[in-house]
Amino acid sequence: MQSYSTASSSAAFGTNIESCKALGIDKKLINFGVSIGQIIFMPSGAIQFFIISLCTGQSFGTEITIVWIITSIITSTILAIATPPIPGGGLSCYTILFAQLGIPSAGIALVISIDLLMDAFLTACNLAFLQTELVLSAKKLNLLDEEKLRK
Fold first, then answer.
1. Residue 25: helix, strand or coil by DSSP?
2. How confident is the model at residue 148 (pLDDT cuts 50, 70, 90)?
3. Domains of the chain, with CATH numbers?
């Protein structure tokens, strides 16, 4: 819940560790998985970057081709990984994304307001996705206490 209230995965680091322990994930996997996962595991950020680029590009009359879409997906994924885990960390990425896709910079003002509203929700989603991935990985690696998970 702390990730939702602060929009910062860094602020929720301790809570995320405790949540993973409560899920029955082995401490070895938690120490590695949460530390690196909160930095590079940002699937909802990549989805947000792509959808916003698509909507903003269409709104500003940018020609959207299959090459444009592929470029948007690749750039969005890279930017999601590169986004710092702080509130508003993705705001600087829109300039790069829009320049790469030929979207007018006037769209950034619109996107900033959307990003500020969505940041807390997306951070909470990223952390929930991370915990789910860690549970699945722990099960595959036999590092999951299934009795603890069921409780």
1. strand
2. confident
3. 2-150 (1.10.3860.10)
Structure tokens belonging to residue 101: 């896709």
Buried b (16+ CB within 10 A) or exposed e, 90-122: beebbeebbebbebeeebbeebeeebeebbbeb
pLDDT digits (tens, 9 = 90+) for 27-42: 889 888 888 887 777 7
Tokens of 112: 């900033």
In whole angstroms, give the CA distance from residue 47 to residue 69: 12
Residue that wins the pLDDT comparison between 139 and 121: 139
Greatest CA span in the chain, whole angstroms? 55
Inform me whether the pLDDT recorded for 2 exceeds 50.
Answer: no
59, 107 Cβ separation under 8 angstroms:
yes
Q: Of 16, 67, 57, 73, which Cα lies nearest the Cα of 39?
A: 16
